[in-house]
Specification:
The protein has 288 residues and is of the alpha/beta class. Helices cover 40% and strands 20% of the residues. It has 10 helices and 12 strands. It has helices at residues 18-26, 41-52, 72-85, 101-113, 131-142, 154-167, 181-188, 207-212, 250-268, 278-285; strands at 6-11, 32-36, 63-68, 93-96, 122-126, 146-151, 172-177, 193-196, 218-221, 238-242, 245-248, 275-276. The longest helix is centred in the last third of the chain and has 19 residues, at 250-268. The two termini are 31 Å apart.
């Protein structure tokens, strides 16, 4: 008799994410969902021991761990401790998606890749220093795009470039300050892809400036709260052509993100030694 499929949801926040719990259950793959809040590297080890010492190695493929929370850095620290706790055959598959940053970034870059060859493409990421933006930069660089990493602060965008290059040795990145219209005009010159990943309710690129970019082929905005991140794009746009560019809004990307999240949860139970971060989730998205 097969044992129940158990997903242990480790959340760094004071309350486990209801969103992540619902998506896990809606995947149709999870028989039992165990949620724990306030998880830190200090207390994660005992939780992992509870997951791996209760079943034999052959049954551990029916146990998996999801790591979430609003603080991406804290979630990554928990992920690292979880992986250090495993040994020999006593390990289970792990997915990390704090604040939906990994699945959102993967869905956005997949949308771009379906409409343009990213290898050698000139791409601009606005709001590139946030959790989603950094992962968008990573995934674009991994696909061979030449990425302009834009932030209101040149120091912060430079820091992102250094961090991404440490993970993607072949990355072709250019840090930019994009706080003024003049800086934005320079930033968009010659780009074929723009992805806006800034804070909710902040317009990063006006309709007027977007329309001035004659080379633009794909524009993706991940902000669903008015004013939107890229002027003239609607939240439900899914490949809608606007002034020669295919446009995608936050709700359209969000739909792909949800499908990707559910599929990844299902795939966690295929074996006991998988680790799904942004790159792995992006690769899973190829099958959507």
């Amino acid at each position: 008799m097969d044992r129940a499929k158990i997903l242990l949801q480790l959340d760094t926040d004071d309350q486990p994410s209801v969103f992540d719990s619902v998506v896990a259950l809606d995947s149709g793959e999870v028989d039992r969902l165990l949620t724990r809040s306030g998880v830190t590297p200090h207390n994660a080890r005992s939780l992992v021991h509870g997951a791996i010492f209760t079943r034999g190695p052959d049954d551990l493929r029916r146990t998996a761990i999801f790591i979430g929370g609003n603080d991406v850095t804290a979630a990554e620290a928990v992920r690292d401790e979880v992986l250090r706790t495993f040994f020999g055959p006593l390990r289970v598959s792990v997915m990390i998606d704090p604040n939906g940053a990994n699945t959102t970034a993967a869905a956005a870059v997949r949308a771009a890749a379906k409409n343009i060859d990213l290898a050698g493409a000139e791409a601009l990421v606005l709001g590139a220093t946030g959790p989603v933006g950094q992962r968008v930069v990573r995934l674009l660089a991994r696909e061979g795009a030449k990425v302009r990493v834009a932030s209101r602060s040149l120091d912060r965008s430079t820091g992102v470039c250094k961090a991404v290059t440490a993970k993607v040795e072949t990355a072709q990145l250019t840090p930019l300050a994009a706080a003024t219209n003049d800086q934005l005009r320079t930033a968009i010159e010659g780009v074929t892809v723009i992805i806006a990943a800034g804070a909710a309710g902040v317009e990063l690129l006006s309709t007027e400036l977007r329309d001035q970019c004659a080379t633009l082929q794909v524009a993706i905005d991940l902000n669903a709260v008015p004013p939107l991140g890229i002027g003239g794009i609607e939240v439900n746009d899914r490949g809608v052509e606007r002034n020669g560019a295919k446009c995608f809004g936050a709700l359209a990307i969000g739909g792909t993100k949800m499908r990707l999240h559910k599929l990844a949860v299902k795939l966690l139970f295929e074996s006991r030694d998988q680790v799904f971060d942004a790159e792995e989730l992006y690769d899973i998205g190829r099958g959507l």
